Amino acid sequence: MNLQLTAKEVGLLKDMKDQEQLCIQKYEEYAKEASKQELKQLFCDMAQTERQHLKTVTEMMGGTVTPVTGSISANNSHCTPVGYSDEGQRTRDAFLCRDMLATEKHASSLYDVSVFEFSDPVARKVLNHIQSEEQQHGEQLYAYMKANGMYNG
Length: 153
Known about the structure:
With 153 residues, the protein is an all-alpha fold. It has four helices and no strands. It is elongated.
């Protein structure tokens, strides 16, 4: 479907593209730094989803929007305690999770604004779907942190 973008929509897409690139970079780096395999895998899985988001946003910048198919299903299978015996590793992994949770909150807020600002209904649905996936990432991070005594909220 061809998308005619306003100047404001182009600016929002640029912001979203920058945010997706940052998410990918952080998840990839943090996957290397995480001490537990479960957290490494969680970060790798999220980076893959962010790459799809980047692809979608880039296509939209080029004037193409593809309607969303399928639904989002939560997967918190990683939220069981992984047994940190080294407090330094747990503290470092907690920092990585907190930083990514803050990053996901920011990404979600960009999509929230965009859902209201885009005039094309298909584009709004696509952006809303991405926002839901960003929120799911936050839920997954929270579940990991809670299960491993990293969340003080």
